[in-house]
Every structure is written in C-alpha cells, then in structure tokens.
C-alpha cells in the first residue's frame, strides 16, 4: 500500500477531498454573512492570544480570491495524498497542520497581522507527494512527483520571502512538515514490513 499512486478507494478519497474543500467554502460564506470577522481567529505570531489560531487558520481565508487560488491545489494534493489510505492521510495532514501553524506563530509577521489560509496544507501535501517516492523507493510515485513538479513548479516561489501579503513562513514550514511526514510514515512502513522471525524448529503458518 505504501507504494500506491492513487487512493485504494478513489470514490471515498474524492468525497473526503471535496468535503474538506466544501467546509472551506462554507466557512468563508459564514465569514461574509456574519458581522464578526472570522479571520481574527487566525494566527497572531508570538502572542499567546493568537496561539489557538493554529487550529483555525487553515479553515479561514482573507477573501474569495484567496480561497479560489487554494482550491485546485487542495483538491488535487489532498486526493493524491490518500494513496496509503484515509487514516494515513489524516496523520500526514495533522503533522502538516500543526508544524506549519507553529512555524508561523514562531517566525511569522508581528504586530496585529492575522495569518490565515489552507496554502500551508497545500504546500505540505505537495512536499509529501514530491518526496514520498524517494523514501518509499517507489518509481511510480517518483514519476508522479516529477509531473506535479512540472505543473506546480511556480508554487515553489511561495517558499521565499518578498511577496507582500503572502505567508511564506506558512508555506515553508508546511513544506518542511510534508517532508517530515513522508519520512516518518515511510519509516513506519519499513518497520512493519520486516519479516517476523519464525520460532526455532517451528513454522509461522498453520
């Protein structure tokens, strides 16, 4: 399963990816309708009051344009990241979610700046997809990584500072978290794949 390219149950994976994206749209719609500004639930760097934004920031977006720009990467990358099953995807997503958020909280912009958006997740999933084939020694996954890199290579510029209003910190730490998630999960797969030694003079089978 570790070397799969597509999810074992594509229909279920598509439903999960679409459902997550739908949640993002519903949250943005509620933010537009309500008088309260939900974006103030984002991450405020180096402030204890902004620490809980790590939980909410990926669900919030500055405006519809911000959400539209994240939609296709979120759909595609989250779907492909379910190649080892939804349980594995949940673990990978949790690692990216927390590490990218903590990174923003530690080194993000100061002042009263609120950092929001699912792009940290998108960069994390992309990085996970780019390196998992190397850790898994899977030629098919490496080929997919090359294709993804060819299509979305422009996203890599988002890892660098310089674009006003864009959280390169969230992108960078999301990508680093994706690499870490790929390494941890592939290491776990290798451990579980080790043969269990048979007892002396006996067989494992019955």
Automatic annotation (TrEMBL):
<dbReference type="GO" id="GO:0006508">
    <property type="term" value="P:proteolysis"/>
</dbReference>
<dbReference type="InterPro" id="IPR035952">
    <property type="entry name" value="Rhomboid-like_sf"/>
</dbReference>
<dbReference type="GO" id="GO:0016020">
    <property type="term" value="C:membrane"/>
</dbReference>
<feature type="transmembrane region" description="Helical">
    <location>
        <begin position="54"/>
        <end position="77"/>
    </location>
</feature>
<keyword id="KW-0645">Protease</keyword>
<feature type="transmembrane region" description="Helical">
    <location>
        <begin position="12"/>
        <end position="34"/>
    </location>
</feature>
<dbReference type="GO" id="GO:0004252">
    <property type="term" value="F:serine-type endopeptidase activity"/>
</dbReference>
<dbReference type="Pfam" id="PF01694">
    <property type="entry name" value="Rhomboid"/>
</dbReference>
<feature type="transmembrane region" description="Helical">
    <location>
        <begin position="142"/>
        <end position="160"/>
    </location>
</feature>
<keyword id="KW-0812">Transmembrane</keyword>
<dbReference type="InterPro" id="IPR022764">
    <property type="entry name" value="Peptidase_S54_rhomboid_dom"/>
</dbReference>
<keyword id="KW-0378">Hydrolase</keyword>
<feature type="transmembrane region" description="Helical">
    <location>
        <begin position="89"/>
        <end position="108"/>
    </location>
</feature>
<feature type="transmembrane region" description="Helical">
    <location>
        <begin position="166"/>
        <end position="184"/>
    </location>
</feature>
<comment type="similarity">
    <text>Belongs to the peptidase S54 family.</text>
</comment>
<keyword id="KW-0472">Membrane</keyword>
<keyword id="KW-1133">Transmembrane helix</keyword>
<feature type="domain" description="Peptidase S54 rhomboid">
    <location>
        <begin position="55"/>
        <end position="187"/>
    </location>
</feature>
<protein>
    <submittedName>
        <fullName>Rhomboid family protein</fullName>
    </submittedName>
</protein>
<feature type="transmembrane region" description="Helical">
    <location>
        <begin position="114"/>
        <end position="135"/>
    </location>
</feature>
């Amino acid at each position: 399963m570790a070397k799969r390219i597509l999810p074992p149950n594509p229909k279920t994976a598509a439903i999960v990816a679409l459902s997550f994206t739908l949640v993002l749209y519903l949250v943005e719609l509620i933010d537009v309708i309500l008088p309260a500004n939900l974006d103030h639930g984002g991450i405020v760097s180096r402030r204890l009051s902004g620490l809980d934004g790590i939980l909410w920031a990926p669900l919030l977006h500055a405006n519809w344009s911000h959400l539209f720009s994240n939609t296709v990467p979120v759909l595609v990358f989250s779907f492909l990241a379910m190649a080892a099953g939804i349980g594995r995807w949940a673990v990978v997503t949790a690692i990216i979610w927390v590490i990218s958020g903590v990174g923003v909280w530690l080194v993000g912009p100061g002042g009263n700046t609120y950092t929001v958006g699912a792009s940290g997740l998108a960069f994390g999933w992309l990085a996970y997809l780019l390196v998992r084939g190397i850790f898994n020694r899977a030629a098919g996954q490496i080929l997919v990584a090359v294709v993804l890199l060819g299509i979305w290579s422009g996203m890599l510029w988002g890892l660098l500072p310089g674009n006003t209003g864009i959280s390169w910190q969230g992108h960078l730490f999301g990508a680093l978290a994706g690499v870490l998630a790929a390494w941890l999960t592939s290491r776990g797969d290798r451990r579980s794949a080790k043969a269990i030694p048979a007892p002396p003079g006996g067989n494992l089978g019955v």
